[in-house]
């Protein structure tokens, strides 16, 4: 399992330096910075043996660019649940680490700004919303603390290599299925806000289930047959 840490709008040089050091601690080599506010040069002072991580970090101008080439992405937030808000239906870090992450070849963990976190639009771009359960009276962690906890939990799982397990469907395979599912949704669901909710739920269910390549092919066939039938009757 390869891990990419994605920092969106990182504001503090101290946090950036500490995160680079943490990446080195847990053998994470990919650090992507989306429109960083912090100075990479200043962050070097706080990175200790994480300097090489900073030197090789990739600066991009969009979250989409930072997620290119990964099989799975998880956004992080201290607000894991809000009644009636389909976007805020998070899974716990424990659930993510134990049941989902080990089956992916490359995953991206997305962390937001120290001041405001991730926007709703940014959360929508991730496959999962993951939260670290903490004291409900003060659940907000410093971003460098959150990165350390995530990477430590993932580190404990990365040594195990699966055996006799069918190949996992690639992101491209799953996107093909979702594309057809979204077309089906457009035919049978209205208005647009309900379409978005349905598409988001299907996306999360599909990625959470971690289907094999063969299973994804069967799902694609099934969805295409449904779409053809609906198109004939509409």
Q: What report would you give on this structure?
A:
This protein has 234 residues and is an alpha/beta fold. The chain folds into two domains: 2-157, SPOUT methyltransferase, trefoil knot domain (Alpha/beta knot, 3-Layer(aba) Sandwich); 171-233, no CATH class. It has ten helices and seven strands. It has helices at 13-25, 40-43, 51-55, 63-66, 93-100, 120-124, 143-157, 171-188, 192-209, 213-233; strands spanning 2-8, 30-34, 58-60, 72-76, 91-92, 106-111, 128-131. It has a seven-stranded parallel beta sheet. Strand 1, helix 1 (13-25) and strand 2 form a beta-alpha-beta unit. Helix 1 (13-25) packs parallel to helix 7 (143-157) and helix 8 runs antiparallel to helix 9. The radius of gyration is 19 Å and the shape is globular.
Specify the CATH architecture of the largest domain. 3-Layer(aba) Sandwich
Tell me the Rg in angstroms. Answer: 19 Å
Largest sheet: 7 strands, parallel
- First and last CA, distance: 44 Å
Structural class, from helix and strand content?
alpha/beta
Shape: globular
Mean pLDDT: 90
Strand content: 5-15%
CATH class categorisation of the largest domain = Alpha Beta
Could you give the order of the helices and strands?
EHEHHEHEEHEHEHHHH
Name its key features:
234 residues; single chain; alpha/beta; globular; 7 strands; Alpha/beta knot
Short description:
The chain contains 10 helices and 7 strands. With 234 residues, the chain is of the alpha/beta class. It has a 7-stranded parallel beta sheet.
